[in-house]
Design brief:
Blueprint lengths: L1 H12 L1 H27 L4 H10 L7 H30 L7 H17 L5 H26 L3 H20 L13 H4 L10 H4 L9 H18 L1 H11 L1 H6 L4 H24 L15 H12 L4 H17 L12 H13 L2 H20 L11
Helix pairs in contact: 2-3, 2-16, 2-17, 3-15, 4-10, 4-13, 4-14, 4-15, 5-6, 5-7, 5-13, 5-14, 6-7, 6-13, 10-11, 10-15, 11-13, 14-15, 14-16, 15-16
């Protein structure tokens, strides 16, 4: 019996288990709060509404249409995963890349302009989106390193500058009687990402492309770089204490710039992964930056600041966001689905807080039981 108890205690001490439990608690709390809001508005359809949000593609009857809508969820998961990895990469090195939305917008702008104006192929469009996202991230890094400008402030300001610049530039490739850009599939089919037969697996869903498997591979690559390479170690060391890193001979300014450059590149690539599928067009009159970058923050923390966990958290967030559209609009206003999704996503940001709380509780119990203080493995940034 003692053996079993000690095994369970050891499992509970692991960072992965604490992340999983914290994430599940936040999800349940978010759903509960969403249900309470629905009860206040209209108790008659509250239970059905909250279950419809969770069903997403299971809402539809027939395996064919379910597979198609499952594919749509994966299409929107790929860019969110890239934004989440962008946030995670910079956070691991002590920086908060809130400018991810702007970097995502920069990638969307260049990918769409290159496709619709210059009729480039999909690969050079991807490269250009990566370069522009990296440039936007580098600018934040330079301001942080050499001018001591907080990356949050410069990132937020750049979000709006890039947004309005994008609206202006993409006006040159929009439809005449519409605020939306031209259809990539119609005007520049060579710019559409290849499917390599993946679309057939999802009931001939034309939007499922190589973006889905590539985003997962990139998540694995980020994990390896951060945890298994000298470069990743130096970046994290700079994040923990840039003065100590400098004393050890590391180039702390270069490392901060490089981390934001990579973060920006990931966000820009995420935009190309989305808009080069032809799933959506850019609206040139939009006055808000894409929510993909901000949702990436929630996906990062819900995934326990782990690249692999971020894959599943990104899918979950897109799952409930798309599922929210199924809520009965005769009982609730059209914005209720966004409200429920926002409540769940907001609570996802408390995963790190719950993990810290759980660590402290386990530590106190261990000290009380053994009389010894044990250093638990902390989740580094």
């Amino acid at each position: 019996m003692k053996n079993k108890d000690s095994k369970f205690a050891n499992i509970m001490k692991t960072d992965g288990m604490q992340s999983l439990i914290s994430s599940l608690i936040c999800i349940v709390l978010g759903l509960f709060l969403g249900y309470i809001v629905l009860l206040f508005i209209n108790p008659t359809g509250a239970f059905k509404a909250i279950t419809d949000v969770m069903k997403n593609f299971f809402y539809y009857k027939g395996s064919t249409i379910r597979l198609k809508y499952f594919g749509n969820t994966l299409v929107k998961t790929a860019p969110l995963l890239m934004c989440a990895l962008s946030i995670l990469f910079s956070y691991k090195v002590g920086l908060f890349n809130i400018g991810c939305s702007g970097q995502y917008t920069a990638g969307a702008c260049t990918a769409l302009y290159a496709a619709l104006k210059w009729n480039w192929g999909w690969f050079p469009c991807l490269v250009l989106a990566i370069a522009m996202g990296a440039l936007a991230g580098t600018l934040v890094g330079v301001l942080k390193s050499y001018c001591n400008v907080n990356e949050v402030i410069s990132g937020i300001m750049l979000n709006w500058i890039i947004l309005y610049g994008t609206n202006t530039i993409l006006t040159n490739v929009k439809e005449l009687a519409s605020p939306y850009t031209l259809l990539v599939k119609k005007y520049s089919p060579q710019s559409i990402l290849p499917s390599l037969g993946l679309g057939k697996l999802f009931s001939n869903n034309q939007y499922v492309t190589i973006a889905v498997p590539l985003s997962i591979l990139i998540a694995v690559a980020v994990m390896i770089v951060l945890n298994k390479t000298k470069f990743g170690y130096e970046l994290k060391a700079t994040g923990f204490n840039k003065n100590a890193a400098k004393y050890c001979g590391m180039k702390e300014k270069r490392n901060m710039i490089l981390s934001l450059l990579i973060s920006g590149a990931l966000a820009g690539l995420g935009a190309a992964f989305f808009y080069l599928t032809g799933y959506e067009q850019w609206e040139c009159t939009t006055s808000t930056v894409p929510g993909m970058g901000f949702n990436g923050i929630a996906a990062t923390f819900l995934g326990g600041l782990n690249p692999i966990g971020t894959i599943f958290s990104s899918f979950f967030i897109q799952h409930i966001t798309i599922g929210g559209a199924n809520v009965d609009k005769t009982m609730y206003c059209s914005q209720i689905s966004d409200l429920i999704s926002a409540l769940i996503i907001y609570l996802c940001g408390f995963v790190l807080f719950l993990k810290t709380f759980m660590k402290n509780v386990i530590r106190k119990r261990e000290v009380k039981r053994t009389g010894k203080y044990e250093n638990f493995k902390q989740d580094g940034r």
